[in-house]
Hints:
By secondary structure, the chain is an alpha/beta fold. The protein folds into two domains: 7-100, Response regulator (Rossmann fold, 3-Layer(aba) Sandwich), CATH 3.40.50.2300; 105-233, Rossmann fold. It has eight helices and ten strands. The protein has helices at 18-33, 46-56, 74-81, 105-118, 137-148, 164-177, 192-205, 236-249, and strands at residues 7-12, 37-42, 61-66, 87-89, 124-128, 153-158, 186-189, 212-216, 230-234, 261-264. The strands form two sheets. It has a six-stranded mixed sheet, sandwiched between helices. Strand 1, helix 1 (18-33) and strand 2 form a beta-alpha-beta unit. It is elongated.
Amino acid sequence: MSVHSPLIGIVSDDVSHPHSMHMLKEVTRQLSARDLLPVLLCAATREDFQVALRNAASLPLGGLLFLSSPCRGAQDIAAHLLPSLRAVHLCPNDSAGADVVVADAYHAGQQLGALLLSQGHQRLGAMQVQASDTPPRQVQGFIASLQVEDKTLHAALHAGALHREQAYQAMMAYLKKTRAAERINALMCEYDELAFGALQAVRDFGQGAHIAVVGFDDADEARGSTWHLSSWAPRRDLLVTEALNRLLDQRPDHSRAWQQGELQVRHSHHGKYVPGEMSQCGCAIRH
């Protein structure tokens, strides 16, 4: 191992989010197995991130691992304030030279699209966190799966933040302003957290609305009978192992096997009650 310090800086803008929480748990487990300790650097703004890095400068850190990016240019800020430290990102990052380890979200989007199309849904939409000129990779893959079947995206919704309540409000606003005959009947969400909000909005709206919903990340709640959310599950264990191998040993795995994941097929992709297994599930009465 080329890094001798027992401390590794873990950067996140919000550890309360299920994705970051699961990643932090896996990072902590693997660091412990290597006799290393995590030091959490939590910052939600550029200014907070700079302060966190300056405070961390007095610690014998052996590297930085990003679970999420606190601000634009986070890689460059870290390189400027802590130039001697290597950094690896377990989240998307467009900075030149950034070492990024993320799941194959494009393929995930394709699989989620194929799942919804297999149910015969005709009008499909997507919900992402923020509006952007370039959609997230999972949304790009989803759109590509529609194009293969000569379909287009009927609605592009934006929550505005990675929070369930914002997703709920965005979905409810869409339902209220769109005529029933023109509404989507299936929705792919950038993250499960958005999917939970969208599903709850459909249930609360009522009026005979049935919209199939799928997510990305396979949060713990997705498996519960309240949601039974069909989702794509990344291999967090493989992602963290690859990130630490790069950070600590400068040993990347170019096979990219760590990008794999698995489609978790449950009930939410149906969009309405289907006889059979669903009758034994708590989500059945909500469709």
